[in-house]
Records
---
Amino acid sequence: MNFRQQKICLSAVVLAICACNSPSGPQDFDAGHTDVSPVETFDVRDDPMDTGPGTGDTGFDADPISDANFNADAFDTGPDATAEDTDTAPIQPEFETGDPPTGTGLITIGTGRLSFQPLMQGDTIRWEMGVQGGHHIWVAVEFDDELIDGIDEETRRAILHRYRIVHQDGTLLAEATRIGGLQEWDTWTAIGLYAVLQAQRRPSRLDGDLLQYRVEVEIEDHPPIYREVWLYSECCD
């Protein structure tokens, strides 16, 4: 048997093994519980430290982007490196440290993997390293009871919430969009979500820089809702 024939035989064996180990039918797949999604849903009810009575809706990512194939360090050539040329101009922040976020609507923006932590102007937000080598920021939003009580269950399950992290120089660093996935505790919240760093920046070179964190919420037959806050970047866990 020559080398070419050996390769063909080996390939056939590998394919046969894969076929035997593959499921025979479609699988239920919750992308929110994997590290390849820019917005991860971490079910706090599965955490042994949690004692809350939370229940919630199923959610899914809109336009998922993986951090598995993106390594900002491989492209970043200095503090002035950007992901791409955009029409976004540098932003002049105007805020007083400790003031609440600006915007409209009955939501509170924050961060948190296992619990909701509201954010105020001038707070610090931390980049964390994922298991696949990328970096992300935990994002979260809390909904006022008055807002949720005014809509039906179907509408609530279809709420779209979008998160954007923009550098002061106008570069979009990270964004994520989720539909549904709210958890009910004392209030309805979306926690355990993250936005993956997509711009060609090293988080360590963002230390102390100002970032604009904006959350937009879309609810059927409801005026637009958004809140935004200025935060100081910090690296890295």
---
Amino acid sequence: MAHALPVVGSDAAPRSGWWTRLVHRTAAPRPDVPEPTAAPPEGPVAVEPAPAAPEVMRPRRTWASLLARCRAVTKADCVFAVEGEGLVVGRDGAYGRVEVDRIAAHLSRAFDTLSFLTEIGRDVESLCVQYDGGRWLTAIRIQPTASQTVTVGIVGPWTIVREDRQRLRDAFLKLFADGLPDAAEGAA
């Protein structure tokens, strides 16, 4: 049995759906729109290459801008970065240079001490410590290359969950792909 398509305008024609959309798309040509007259060229068509876009040089990020962004995202009181040798290379927030240097020294020792607990894991990636009064110190150790280590310390009213610590680590690794910012730029 053959199926006949409904006639447009009859009671049997659907009033909406695919049939209505099909009918409206295949309507008679409009007189105000000219039809194309030129036939496509035959054979290969020579296409001129587009001019090369000028290479955009991204400004080199500074420790101050990186840590300010990290502080804003984590809503922390203070964020700082420590290079592998223990030198604070940048800080942003309510804590002064002396306080950050002191925290960084103890933080480096904590990572070094816990690295001997190989029964738990091979490398210490992060630390989360809660102090009385509801303050948290969260530290993330990042290795952009085999010879470089950066520890990012975050002091605030709460800790950072594992997934967010991983996101921060991944974001910093992407930012460090072009190299680390200079130490003198963020240690003010």
